[in-house]
Amino acid sequence: MTLKRHQRVELEKLTTNELIDYVMQLEEQFTSDSTNSSKPPSRDSAAGREKRKAKKNTSLRRSGERKPGGQNGHPGATLRPSDKPDTQIDLPLDRCPCCQSSLSERDQTGKRTKRQVFDLPKPPPLECTQYNSPEYHCANCESFVHCEFPEGVNAPVQYGSRLAAWLVYMKDELLLPYKRIETFFRDLMDVPVSSATIDQARKRIHQNLEQWEKALIKKLIKEEVLGADESGLRVNQDLYWLHVASTELLTHYAVHEKRGKEGMDATGILPNFKGRLIHDYLSAYLKYEQCEHGLCNQHHLRDLKAVGEMDGQSWSGQMAEVLKSMLHRRHEHEADETRPSEEEITQWQNQYEEVLKTAEAENPLPPDPPPQPDGKKKRGRKKKGKARNLFERFRDKAEEILVFFKDFRVPFTNNQPEQDIRMLKVQQKVSGCFRTKDGAKRFARIRSYLSTMRKQKNNLFEALKAAIEGSPKSELRGS
What we know:
Distance between the termini: 52 Å
Mean pLDDT: 87
Low-confidence stretches: 1-5
CATH architecture of the domain at 221-291 and 416-455: 2-Layer Sandwich
Structural class: alpha/beta
Strand content: 5-15%
């Protein structure tokens, strides 16, 4: 590593202990990867990728708990024959393939072997509908009048709602670039679609979803358990943040310049939510005191692995095993449709507290820093280190960490919003960034609608067509 001149000057001013801390920070940066931190796999170094390949399965599902593949009761998606095929082709046989004797219809036995081929029809040309509005002359007032055209028919020549819904689906659900969408319609249907046409459809649906988004926010506020997460996104050259609040049936995205409470408040969801909020340990979430909290234990397992590998903490593996065992026991209760007794809950809490005693012994409070040459104390808080901070989190937030075992509505991890936010990262890889803030907000609202409609088991194309026509699917089921 090559340091610039001003960086070398700063290092020369550090004491020996401060240099040791600096070296440890650098070591932590190089040893952190997606398995022991919040880094995504895409940012792993070559060594980190090799480590990820070599590591054993880290699934929270224990061996033998469920067999791989589809589970009992899963409907499956096997291609099945149709009782009413669209086309039937009879295959004649003129000669016997065994002895070459002539064959005719009289020789048929009545039995038939059937095979069906499902394929796409030939792409049809666009269907053109012409609306004729004849002019009338009113003899009473001498006015020339004509019938109003249907809503949405605004130009002499335009595309209809089905094609517009298709464009929005390809851009905001499939995340295809503008050029690929243009190429698709030109090659398959000989239709000249431009980026301006796609943008016009997206602006129209964004405007029509304004009231729907307000209804979605009200629905999320009333949920009993809600997951929240945030991730950075680029708007031109600036860093913005995408905030997501979601359940198994509802998803809301919002774009804001700020990551913390200011950005979260802007959505209007978290300030008014009074249920159980599931999230990572970002301090901004903890500022919402009107609701209860639950912490993501997947983050905790990674943090425990990090302090075990980097700091040699023995308690980290013990705590990880306690959490995984509690999750396994919860799965057994769910399979048996039972709930843990107060005695069982107390036993797990006792195991948890025993590990905390070991953690505290391994991580005593750091000593006071030596006095400065002028006799004054060094300002600021004592630097505790990552392991001590993690111990204090497990000590002070035990209820938020273990609530998943008492209340089965609360998930063990915060995976739902993290999965919901994943498609944004795909969009960023496709486009690199959003060019304008309005474009980012348009994407967020449309994706809120698409994600929610998919969770609600609605047909996405029909839902988009309804939204284009000004009547988005408004019936929203809660979790």
